[in-house]
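Hi all, posting the design record for the shared folder.

TITLE: backbone redesign
STEP: 1 of 1
STRUCTURE INPUT:
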């Protein structure tokens, strides 16, 4: 049955029984099926200077707390952050180091920190069971044994992740290594770290209050912030820039592009460098995903303004609007001697034949999850994986340490967008069928989060680490995650 038809029929049934609360959600759903979409973005003036979180390379100490920030002009907004203001510091570490991090929870509720993309032991991964109570602290010790890459961190307390991230708790975790160093990629002023997040702001305050309809599509905001600044600009020279972008939004997908359609080069993905740069004009970036790109401002005249934007796209309940994210102002002439390497790294493909098991993960959104029963999956638990809603204590999948497996995320019946993420491993993408029908440039590298658009089925392959423990995998649409679209897997 098509969604709209289903909604109509079950709403008729509800009206007969005068089930008012269900009627209300039916009306929300009718609106949605009649074309409501992500909230319309309000482009700003691009007159605030882009700022960057502080960078720390030693004495790592994080303090989750409430702060005041100026997100919109002349208004003081209450936010959360890991130091002052919104967001948290950028942690920069070298491969091979072991990083002690002290963490203090000064929020009025429980939280924890998950190190997204890091291959670390289960007891420091920020599993939703490992909670730090309000007023308590926790000392992490993170062994860094993985490729250089753009990783990140954020809270992971079950049912509260979306709100805490939305309120401002997130930051970059950058790993450097000698392989990447040797490429002499643009650095210093020519390397920019950008976290893109949409916020809903009412009367100057962040407003996180998703309706049932918004739990379905994801909670989207009308203000697009980069590094916590709404509609910023940044001055650049006539040079090539390395720009690392994190989509730190709870649900919004961006189709990253430049307003003049200039080709940019994807050099890295979630788990570090690709083998070769890949030129593209646009790239979909789902919540939780990162992309590392080279943008060339050499050919522009001084004075030129270039926008980073999101272009329209299809494949789900978003993408109906083109909007600008930030402005680059070419404000000075400089000589650039950097030449883009033709080879960046070596990525040894994992042979599908080495897989000992294939698992299918049927991902279901609100409508597909209703099983034809009136209200069957309404309320919490509207989003499921293999028909299950998250249970902190239940082990859903058991895998053998060191084994290679193929997992297939199946959204072939779904209308919603699901960026699927697995803790504890980096994977390679084998195929996408249905929907877009092929892989995109960033999917040629190591990934920890994979965008599964409406009607798509995506196959990935990975080798689990030797270290044993319980990790989660889930949808990184954080409304879906909090609604229960998450399972535990155990490495034994
Ligand atoms: Cu960034 Cu479990 O997530
Ligand atoms: Cu993660
Ligand atoms: Cu989802």
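Okay, here is what came back for every position:
SEQUENCE:
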């Amino acid at each position: 049955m098509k969604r709209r038809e289903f909604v109509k029929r079950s709403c008729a049934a509800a009206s007969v029984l005068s089930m008012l609360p269900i009627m209300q959600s039916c009306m929300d759903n009718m609106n949605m099926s009649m074309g409501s979409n992500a909230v319309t973005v309000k482009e700003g003036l691009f007159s605030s200077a882009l700022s960057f979180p502080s960078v720390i390379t030693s004495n790592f100490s994080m303090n989750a707390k409430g702060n005041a920030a100026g997100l919109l002009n002349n208004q003081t907004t209450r936010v959360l952050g890991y130091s002052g203001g919104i967001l948290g510091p950028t942690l920069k570490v070298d491969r091979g180091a072991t990083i002690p991090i002290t963490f203090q929870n000064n929020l009025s509720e429980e939280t924890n920190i998950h190190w997204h993309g890091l291959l670390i032991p289960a007891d420091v991964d920020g599993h939703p069971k490992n909670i730090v109570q309000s007023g308590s602290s926790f000392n992490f010790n993170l062994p860094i044994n993985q490729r250089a890459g753009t990783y990140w961190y954020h809270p992971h307390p079950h049912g509260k992740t979306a709100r805490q991230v939305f309120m401002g708790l997130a930051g970059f975790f950058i790993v450097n290594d000698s392989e990447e160093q040797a490429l002499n990629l643009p650095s210093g002023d020519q390397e920019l770290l950008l976290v893109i997040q949409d916020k809903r702001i009412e009367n100057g305050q962040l407003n996180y209050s998703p309706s049932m309809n918004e739990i379905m599509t994801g909670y989207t905001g009308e203000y697009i912030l980069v590094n916590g600044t709404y509609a910023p600009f940044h001055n650049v020279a006539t040079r090539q820039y390395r720009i690392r972008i994190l989509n730190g939004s709870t649900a919004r997908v961006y189709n990253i592009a430049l307003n003049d359609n200039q080709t940019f080069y994807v050099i890295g993905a979630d788990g570090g460098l690709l083998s070769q740069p890949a030129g593209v004009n646009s790239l979909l970036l789902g919540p939780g995903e990162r992309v590392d790109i080279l943008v060339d401002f050499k050919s522009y005249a001084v004075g030129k303004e270039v926008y980073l934007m999101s272009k329209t796209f299809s494949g789900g309940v978003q993408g109906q609007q083109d909007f600008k994210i930030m402005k680059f102002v070419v404000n000075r002439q400089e000589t650039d001697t950097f030449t883009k390497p033709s080879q960046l790294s070596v990525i040894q493909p994992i042979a599908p034949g080495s897989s000992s098991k294939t698992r299918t993960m049927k991902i279901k959104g609100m409508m597909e999850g209703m099983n034809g029963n009136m209200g069957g999956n309404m309320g919490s638990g509207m989003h499921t994986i293999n028909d299950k809603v998250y249970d902190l204590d239940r082990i859903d999948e058991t895998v053998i340490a060191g084994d290679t497996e193929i997992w297939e995320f199946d959204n072939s019946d779904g209308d919603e967008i699901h960026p699927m993420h697995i803790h504890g491993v980096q994977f390679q993408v084998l195929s996408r069928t249905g929907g877009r029908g092929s892989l995109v440039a960033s999917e040629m590298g190591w990934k920890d989060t994979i965008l599964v658009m409406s009607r798509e089925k995506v196959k990935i392959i990975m080798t689990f680490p030797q270290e044993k423990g319980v990790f989660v995998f889930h949808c990184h649409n954080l409304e879906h995650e909090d609604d229960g679209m998450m399972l535990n897997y155990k490495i034994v």
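COMMENT: The chain is about 10% helix and 40% strand.
Let me know if anyone wants the other runs.
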